[in-house]
Amino acid sequence: MNMKSVCLFCGSNKGQRPEYITAAADFGRTLAEQGITLVYGAGKVGLMGVAADAALAAGGKVIGVIPEFLKAKEVAHLGLTELHVTDTMHQRKALMAELADGFVALPGGFGTFDELFEILTWAQLAVHDKPVGLLDVAGFYQPLLALTRHAVAEGFVPASNMELFSHSSDILTLLDTMRNYQPRHTAKWLDLAHT
């Protein structure tokens, strides 16, 4: 598929490892070099700000989406190509999803996990058929991958739903895998729950 825009989920902190900062900068720069618009939560802080600054410095287009209450706290990046302000967090996530052709999660905290799992749930329910990727920097997502495999083993996630996302420690490999993503609309989890 032709990905013209990618929505980034990542930390509003920079984390404890320099690799996280490097990966965020590399990601933003790589999107710009490939002519892919970066869509994200509009923060100027943490890995969010690092990725946006790197994309902008490389001549890329960056679209930020932020709720009014966070903009009022002066965490919004005001140097973006476009800045959309919403009333609520729910509207923010819906607009980011609408603006993106795919989704990538870098390391982050509860907000990142919330965004990632919501977009995976939407894929599971066939609300969208866009690719989702985890950039597994310094093994950050290995515990989450272990948890998802455990959920499959325990019968809470169909094994086929592991194909709803891809993961790699290499940015170019991840983007190529996402471009080749073929959505598979298997039986919905509600159907499976009643069999």
Automatic annotation (TrEMBL):
It is an enzyme of class 3 (hydrolase). One of its GO terms (cellular component) is cytosol. Keywords: Cytokinin biosynthesis, Hydrolase. GO terms for molecular function: AMP nucleosidase activity. Its EC number is 3.2.2.n1. This is Cytokinin riboside 5'-monophosphate phosphoribohydrolase. It catalyses: AMP + H2O = D-ribose 5-phosphate + adenine. The lineage of its organism: Bacteria, Pseudomonadati, Pseudomonadota, Betaproteobacteria, Neisseriales. Gene3D superfamilies: 3.40.50.450. Belongs to the LOG family.
